[in-house]
Structures are given as structure tokens and as C-alpha cells.
Amino acid sequence: MVSKPFTLLTALLFTLGTLHTSFAIPNLQDANNVLLRRQQVEGSGASQAGVGSRQSVDPPPPPGPPNFTGTKLVNDRDHPWRPLRNGDIRGPCPGLNTLASHGVSSVPMYFQESLTTSFIQYLPRDGVASPSQIVTAVQEGFNMENNFAIFLTYLAHLLDGNLVTDLLSIGGETPKTGPAPPPPALAGGLNVHGTFEGDAGLTRADAFFGDNHSFNQTLFDQFVEFSNRYGGGFYDLTVAAEYRYARIQDSIATNPDFSFTNVRYITAYGETVLTANLFSDGRQTDRKVSMDAAASFFRDMRFPDDFHRASQPVSGAGDVEQVIGPHPWLPGGNADGKVNNYVVDPTSADFTNPCRLYSHVVGSVVEFYPNPTGNLKRNLIKNLHYWYTGVNGTFGGCSELFPYSRL
Q1: pLDDT of 61-119, one tens digit each?
Q2: Residue 113: CB partners within 8 Å, gap ≥ 6?
Q3: Does residue 43 surpass a pLDDT of 90?
Q4: Which residues contact 16 (CB under 8 A, 6 or more apart)?
Q5: What is the b/e burial string over 264-296, where b = at least 16 CB atoms within 10 angstroms of the residue's CB?
Q6: 314, 143 in Cβ contact below 8 A?
Q7: SS in 3 state form for the chain?
Q8: Which of 333, 23, 277 has the alpha carbon at shortest distance from 156?
Q9: How far apart, in whole angstroms, are the C-alpha atoms of residue 382 and residue 59?
């Protein structure tokens, strides 16, 4: 039998020899044709060269929770930070960006079962990963709760991933995820506006102004200002409530296309809470994020030195009321392409009716894939079910839908 150390060394040598330069969800507001048009425009110039040999992947079930769910050092010797190489992809989510910057170089799938857990955890440095890799990474790096990790990951994958190759870009569209799916769907990655990425982000500008995925220093300066004013120089849930409300008001006043409904409504509050829960050191009990730590995550895509993950599995659901409570706000958006013209959308999902979110997204997937066949249909059925397990585990009470029947 070949020893594990020898296998690991062989895999490392193979990977190093083949390297080349080159891981917050759907808004889907006001009819999905808006998103479809955006996807088609953003993907119109992408090259598909070199991806014809990609094989269809039968997607495995999502990973379960890890054996150990306490705090531990995650910025360790096994996961060093590395600067971006040409072609590495990053996107709107600072958590996934950080996990990729502390991740591993691409390793052939047939080597992965022989590698040690510490070697394969976190995300590939090039920013392209499978949903299973992302779920594992956010659990391992941040101690995100299993059902919540599945809910977020498979939601993004259904809308922005390549369901045939089982790969998702944490940033923009890339041929690394494989051939494009049939229109109107597009494996556009997390940068596609109105899916994972949405308006009124904490440190990313609205898509109306151009760049919706890169770190925005002006917005980060506002983040710091609010943390100083309401949190004594730290970001916590008190700051989260004030800054979330301010970002909504700013988008209403400046973005004629501002939309804050359905998934974006849910995830905007979720990301506000997760910043406090995931970016604070797990050895602390106050869940306060220093400005140095915030800059490390948002700007540098890097774990702070000696950073320990949360002390117990974290979701975004439990603390949302503390953020909404001081400034209650209903889903809606600017109407008629005019600023300061916010209209409430009574049909949108909100925290009192999460099952409306589930049925809305399933309907959107059907619009993207109206007549799937073969492996695509199989993978849609499986991924929709995987996502449902995350929805049910996070919110509960929703009946599972089967738009493509069952396997």
C-alpha cells in the first residue's frame, strides 16, 4: 500500500507542476426578466475556450456538520494567506474571498481523497469551487451552522453556478466553471446583480453605479464612522442596526433602480448580522469587530493575525430582530426609475413569511431552466432538494416543491 505521506507529496508536486497564473442571494425582484437581461449582458463576451472536455458531475449531498464545533485558530500554518495571482477570482463576499486567499491551489479530484483534511479545507485559491467545498469551508473557517451554510450556498449555486459541472465562481463569470448552460440561465458567478449580490451592501456599491463587487473605500469609511459613533470604535449589533438603515436610505436617495425585496431583503439583514458574528474573534463573548479586523476581511481578504473562529455554530437568523427593531423597514424599491420614490412590495418575502422566499426562488429556477433534460435535469432535482434541506433546517415549516418531479 502506498503511504499517505507519499501520496500527499505526489499530489503537491503534481499541483505545483501544473499551476498556471490565471466562497450574503437572489433578489429576483420585480419579475425575473430584469435579472435575465443582466445575466445575458454580463455573459455576452465570456470565452468558452478550453472547457469542452469538462464532464458532467453527479452532485453529492451537502456535507454534514463537522465533528468539532468549538472555537479554534483558523489563521494557522496550514492556511497561509497568499496574494492574488493573475486570473484568481474574488467577488462581493468578504468571507468567501478570505477563505480563498487562505485556501489551497487547485488539486485534481482523484487526489483529494488521499489528502489530509487540513490540506483540502477552505476554498481553492482561484475562486472556483463546488457547493460541497463552500459548505465545508464556511463551517471550518467561520463555524457557520450547517443548515444555514447549505441554505446560502445552494441558493447561490442554483442561481449563479454551473449545475452540470457542479462548480461556482465566487466572483465573475469564468470558463473554469465549464460550458455555459442553455439560455436564459447563465453560470455568471456571484457578481451577477440581483442574485447573491444586491443593493445597499456594507462595503460594495450598488450595481447602478458600476462596480458592484469590489471593495469601496468610501463606504468602508462610513462603516468606520458608524462604528466609532455607535460602537465606540467597534462594529456590533447596535452599529449594525444604524448602518443597515443608513445604507437603505442612501440607496433610496441615490439609486433610481434600488431594489430591496425577496432574497436581497433577507440577506441584507443577514450579512449585517453575520459581520458581527463571524468576523469577531471566537475567544470574545461580546461579538465586537475591531476596525483593523474589519479592514483585514473587507479590504485585504485576510484573516487577522491569531484569529479564532466563532465559539459555536453561527447563523444569521437569531439576531436579525436586534437589527430590524430600531428601524423597522418593509421590502420594496424605488419605482418608475426615480430616486426617493420607495414603494413597499406587499408580495415580497420577509422574515414573517420565509416560505414565500422558498417558492419564489423555485419559480425563478424554473424560469431559468424551463425544459431541462438528461444530467442537467437530474442535477436540478438534486440541488433543489439539497437547498430545501437548508431552507427547512433554517426556517422550517415550508413544504418541498418538485417542479421537475423526483428521481
Answers
A1: 999 999 999 999 999 999 999 999 999 999 999 999 999 999 986 554 444 444 444 45
A2: none
A3: no
A4: 105
A5: bbbbbbbbbbbbbbbbbbbeeeebbbbbebbbb
A6: yes
A7: CCCHHHHHHHHHHHHHHHCCCCCCCCCCCCCCHHHHHHHHHHCCCCCCCCCCCCCCCCCCCCCCCCCCCCCCECCCCCCCCCCCCCCCCCCCCHHHHHHHHCCECCCCHHHHCCCCHHHHCCCECCCEECHHHHHHHHHHHHCECHHHHHHHHHHHHHHHCECCCCEEECCCCCHHHCCCCCCCCCCCCCCCECCCECCCCCCCCCHHHCCCCCCCHHHHHHHHHHHHHHHCCEECHHHHHHHHHHHHHHHHHHCCCCEECHHHHHHHHHHHHHHHHHHCCCCCCCCCEEHHHHHHHHCCCCCCCCCECCCCCECCCCCHHHHHCCCCCCCEEECCCCCCCEEECCCCCCCCCHHHHHHHHHHHHHHHCCCCCHHHHHHHHHHHHHHHHHHHHHCCCCCCCCCCCCC
A8: 23
A9: 7
DSSP bridge pairs for 167: 162
End-to-end CA distance of the chain: 38
- Closest C-alpha to 261, from 344, 168, 371, 373: 344
Radius of gyration of the chain (CA): 20
132-153, pLDDT tens digit by residue?
999 999 999 999 999 999 999 9
Between CA 375 and CA 41 the distance in angstroms is 26
* Amino acid making up residue 234: F
Rounded CA-CA distance 276/293 in Å is: 11
Q: Reply yes or no on whether the pLDDT at 317 is more than 60.
A: yes
- pTM for the structure as a whole: 0.85
d(CA 231, CA 238): 7
- Judge contact between 113 and 225, C-beta under 8 A: no
Q: How far is CA 406 from CA 192, 352, 399, in A?
A: 29, 29, 15
